[in-house]
Amino acid sequence: MSAAASHRTPDQSRAAAFWYKRVALCAFSARAIDRRGFTFVELLIAAGLLTLIIGIVGQWFYSQRQYQDRITRLNDIQENLRQATFNIAKELKTGRQVIWPRINADLSPRSDTVLVFKNFRGAIVAYYHRPARQEIRRCVIPNGPGSPVEDAAPLGKGIASLTFTIMGPDNKTVSLHLTAEGLHHLDAVRLVNE
Amino acid sequence: MTRRTLTAGITLLEIILAMVILTIAIVPMLDVFGISGRTVAKSQNLSMAVGLAHKIAQHLLTVPYDAIVDQPETALADGPDDGMFNPLENPGTSAADALKITAARLPELHAFLKKYNVRYSLDVVGDDPKDVKILITWIEQGRNMLYSLRIYVSRR
Known about the structure:
The complex is a heterodimer. By secondary structure, chain A is of the alpha+beta class. Chain A has a domain at 69-190. Chain A is built from 3 helices and 10 strands, in the order αααββββββββββ. In chain A, the strands form 2 sheets. In chain A, strands 1, 3, 4, 5, 6 and 7 form a 6-stranded antiparallel beta sheet that branches. The longest helix of chain A is centred in the middle third of the chain and has 53 residues, at 40-92. The N and C termini of chain A lie far apart (114 Å). The mean pLDDT of chain A is 85. By secondary structure, chain B is α+β, with helices and mostly antiparallel strands. Chain B has one domain (33-153). Chain B has helices spanning 3-7, 12-60, 107-115, and strands spanning 71-75, 119-125, 130-140, 143-153. A 4-stranded antiparallel beta sheet of chain B has the order 1-2-3-4, covered by helices on one side. The termini of chain B are far apart. The model of chain B has no long low-confidence stretch (mean pLDDT 87). Chains A and B meet through α2, α3, β2, β8 and β9 of A and α1, α2 and α3 of B. Chain A: This is Prepilin-type N-terminal cleavage/methylation domain-containing protein. Chain A: Keywords: Membrane, Transmembrane, Transmembrane helix.
């Protein structure tokens, strides 16, 4: 305790304590003494800012959500394209002979949405695209009496277009061009069965 | 003066600071969406490249053995007549009807291949059998990408 403080009367000490507290409060939080909580203007501005931020973030989030949906869809389409190509190539590569399409008389390639070939068992098989259902179907024409039988399940789903192009002088290379919602898939199958 | 009075309320500055900190924290997390999108685009191009390489491999089985030689990088879009990609299709009955990968004949495919500058090349080593490396290259977000398929072709 300082010498000056030791000579104060009790009244002087109380007054000193009061002013000390008053000055300290002014220094640290003058506003807190004057106001309690938000003012109406602060609340309005905060609400406005919050709305603005939520609006921007919300719109961004929504567009990202749409983008994600599209990405997921593209992924599915890619899978459809790969699966359809695999299913076609699986049987076609062991086929004996392509019946339709045939290369043109001037040896230029020829394309069609239907492919007819003789498979390794000797049965005549047709692959064709159904644009309305966006499907690739397989149909077996028996090598003898009987009716053509279409498979219950499609070879490929979600395929917008399919083109078979026969290439090469021996009529044994089939080029595939599949599309789905702007995506393309190119491949080829060479018949290895002599 | 009570303690409750001293701590009551939040200033506007505090609210703005909190929002700024929140924004700084959230924005990098939102980038995750973009990353997954780019990954799918990559897989799309890779899937295309695998198909193209396989198509070339199948085509090499039809060309004469001596014609399988080194080939420099060749663009698929607006490319030369190579019998593989140009012409790509032919709905007609003569060579005049053949469709090449050009903006006029196959616009969607042309745009895709042009966008990524998809090219192919052949690197042939040895004589019998020939060791053929099929290279598919493309440019993705400024980076050179490559898919390589190696096959052996013997004299038939």
